């Protein structure tokens, strides 16, 4: 009886270990969030910086701007795609003293090699350097007139955000355009 119990325990242990290894293999090869994590940590990947000022043009529609409510609006709308990188307008929040726009970055990455955008300098020693600046944002109304930007923010990851003060609300009422030049183009390959 003891021998049979030992065999059952060994078989179950083997199946659990095999299942865990299969799960880890799947995540490392097919889940974009794990692939970008491995790339950023240089876990079996080499990274090369290709371009330091990629410009993304983003259009904000008027129906996404909450003038009348101070409840955060969770949108998660994809508004740009470039170099296997997706920019989502994640949330817009009328905070009373400004309207704050938050953008989330996701990826569609190949396991072996490819390109992606990131808004930090990825140093050769595995560290990151933030390079974000309010000058990365150029906002214009639909007629091309400049809109003043308020507070800006960066992170986590390659996310970014900015606020627009109430003095600019009339200029954004019909929507507006954003040129964001804070992204860096990187190329990666599996070692």
Question: Can you characterise this structure?
Answer:
By secondary structure, this protein is of the alpha+beta class. It is built from three helices and twelve strands, in the order ααβββββββββββαβ. The strands form three sheets. Strands 1, 5, 8, 9 and 12 form a five-stranded antiparallel β-sheet that branches. A hairpin with a 5-residue loop joins strand 10 and strand 11. Helix 1 crosses helix 2. The longest helix is centred in the N-terminal third of the chain and has 29 residues. The termini are far apart. About 3% of the residues have low confidence.
Largest sheet: 5 strands, antiparallel
Radius of gyration: 22 Å
Shape: elongated
Series of secondary-structure elements, N-terminal to C-terminal = HHEEEEEEEEEEEHE
Q: Which stretches are low in confidence, meaning pLDDT under 50 for 5 or more residues running?
A: 26-31
Q: What is the count of helical runs?
A: 3
For the residues shown, what is the average pLDDT?
88
Approximately how much helix is present in the residues?
10-25%
Judged by helices, strands and strand pairing, the structural class is alpha+beta
* Secondary structure: number of strands: 12
